[in-house]
Amino acid sequence: MSNQLKVIVTGATGVIGRTLMEDLDGVFALTGTSRQPQDDARFRVLDFDDIDAVAEAFAGQDAVVHMHAKSNHDSDELGPYLQPNVVGVYNAYEAARRAGVKRFVFASSNHATGWYELVGERCDAESTPRPDGMYGVAKVWGEAVGRYYADRFGLEVVCLRIGSYQYRRKPPEWDTGARILSTWLSDRDLVNLVRRSVEAPGIRWGIYYGISANARAYWDITNAVTELGYRPRDNAEDYADEVLAKGGEYDLWGYTTEGMV
Q1: Active site residue ranges
Q2: Those residues with Cβ within 8 angstroms of residue 226's Cβ, 6 or more apart along the chain or in another chain
């Protein structure tokens, strides 16, 4: 009998889920979910509007890694996020409770505190939420629901405020200028962070920023290192010359963010 933990990755065809399904294969006994059928026996189609179906899919799993979401972050409208990022998130937590899942890893976002960045202020996991759009607002909701389920029902909840990640993309391939030198999360650091989020003992609740060991970082990852055992190995500074020579900038709502240059 295998001693591997059984882990279900929702949204497993997305930019993060795809990497996890590839790089954690063999580490965990993985199941992935998607909206459409996949040519992969590990996948199952799952509709997060159907809480009974979600609970059935989660049954027997040791951990849920919830990546299913609408991920664009440049909208003032609630509508696009209401079903996948608000109702669907509640359904996922409730389904995990019903199914007896021990640990729930929630893909939050740096946009839950994005307004600090827009005005040039540092923040950490203890900072008051300060979202920079409705996407960030919905992520704050997901963190709050997770805290309630941890306190009320004993679900172990790890909320990851993920920085800048795209599938297999290095900093020079981004168009956000110097910001990527502060916010980048590499492939192997992402995989390590999620693995530690699933395996770390003694976690009841926590919020953790997910970035690599970037020299210009302005999000504090100390608690991810000490509580999860996260050990980032990559540093966006290795690509600084290429990134700065390329130029570009990140802007939102008329604010331009250059990172810690």
Answers
A1: 135
A2: none
